[in-house]
Amino acid sequence: MRLRLIAPASILAVALAACADSPVAPTSASTLAEARGSSNPTTTSSTARIRIFAFLTAPSGARFPSAKGKAHWDSRFSNSKRELEVEVEHLPSGLAVEFFIGGESVGTATTSALGEAELEFSTERGHAVPTSITGLLVEVRDASGALIASGSFPSA
């Protein structure tokens, strides 16, 4: 089967660049590297957007060995708009969990019927969001203080 490109490649490149900040933007190689734990953040020149991930896993011998999660920090417009989201999954429903970033408690949540819990912070909604998360440890603990899952943001 032979496919024919209708628009020149330069028009396609402009269209993809225009969509780069949309929530359904195409995944770039740098975004994939970042999602795999690379310390290289994704940056788009039009908005100076930086996204950094920390992947959380259960420690060996944990009460919930299949627990896992993710923390996502996003900065745009020269760090004037920031978002931070921390989530954990594969837990029993109704479990109270506490989220820690850099050793400080940032909030609590109760797992849903699907065994998931999350916290979201945004400067656009008036929340305090760190200006830098480089190298910070992210932990999720149960009400007794037992570690459920942890991971770190990449170091510079």
CATH class: Mainly Beta
Distance between the termini: 47 Å
| Strand order of the biggest β-sheet | 1-2-3-4-7
Shape-level CATH architecture: Sandwich
Shape: globular
Number of helices: 2
Given the helix and strand composition, which structural class is it? mainly beta
Average pLDDT, all residues: 77
Q: And the CATH topology? A: Immunoglobulin-like
Reported for the largest beta sheet, the result is: 5 strands, antiparallel
* Percent of residues in beta strands: 35-45%
**Uncertain regions spanning at least 5 consecutive residues:** 1-46
Question: Main attributes?
Answer:
11% helix, 39% strand, mainly beta, disordered N terminus, 4-stranded antiparallel sheet, Immunoglobulin-like, single chain, 9 strands, 5-stranded antiparallel sheet, globular, 156 residues
Describe the structure.
The chain is mainly beta and 156 residues long. It has one domain (9-152): Immunoglobulin-like (Sandwich), CATH 2.60.40. Helices cover 11% and strands 39% of the residues. It has a five-stranded antiparallel sheet with strand order 1-2-3-4-7. Strands 6-5-8-9 form a four-stranded antiparallel sheet, with no helix packed on it. Residues 1-46 have low confidence and may be disordered.
